[in-house]
Design goal:
mainly beta
């Protein structure tokens, strides 16, 4: 489902020090997930990764195009994305959250319920945000038994929607 859409890997949380480094909020399992990419789209601007290390609550990065604290601060809130095609293939049974967005959601009885609009994690577990047919949105826990292949609809127990 996510083919063709860029994948957000991190967001710039702010400057780190005075030399142009930035703090990153990661949307990957670790900073290692970013190292596989040399460049990132930053809202229509290309940033070239020079260095990356683990940091407090995420990572600290240096980009070739960012030379001082003022330039680093100007990036606060910027999303860093890569083309979906640049992500490595995953083993069977694993998925990228990005690929779940857009999946149709059906009940265990086969009734159409809505569509996945986001996947979130607030600390305890992954949650799927589903836009229901009537416009209401609900969060449903993503449990291993419910993980679909990206070609199939997501099947959930409609009891979660009550």
């Amino acid at each position: 489902m996510g083919a063709g859409r860029p994948v957000v890997m991190a967001a710039v949380a702010g400057a780190h020090g005075v030399s142009g480094e930035v703090r990153l909020k990661l949307f990957t399992a670790s900073a290692e997930g970013l190292k596989a990419h040399r460049t990132f789209d930053a809202g229509g601007r290309t940033l070239t990764l020079k260095s990356l290390r683990p940091g407090p609550h995420g990572a600290v990065a240096r980009f070739a195009e960012v030379g001082d604290r003022t330039a680093a601060e100007a990036l606060r809130g910027t999303l860093l994305s890569v083309p979906r095609e640049s992500l490595s293939p995953l083993p069977a049974g694993e998925y990228y959250w990005h690929d779940l967005v857009g999946l149709k959601v059906v009940s265990t009885a086969g009734e159409a319920l809505g569509e996945v609009v986001a996947v979130e994690n607030f600390g305890a577990s992954d949650l799927i945000e589903v836009a229901l047919a009537g416009g209401r949105r609900v969060l449903v826990p993503l449990i291993p038994a419910a993980v679909p292949t990206v070609a199939d609809p997501l099947v959930i127990d409609a009891g979660w929607l009550e």
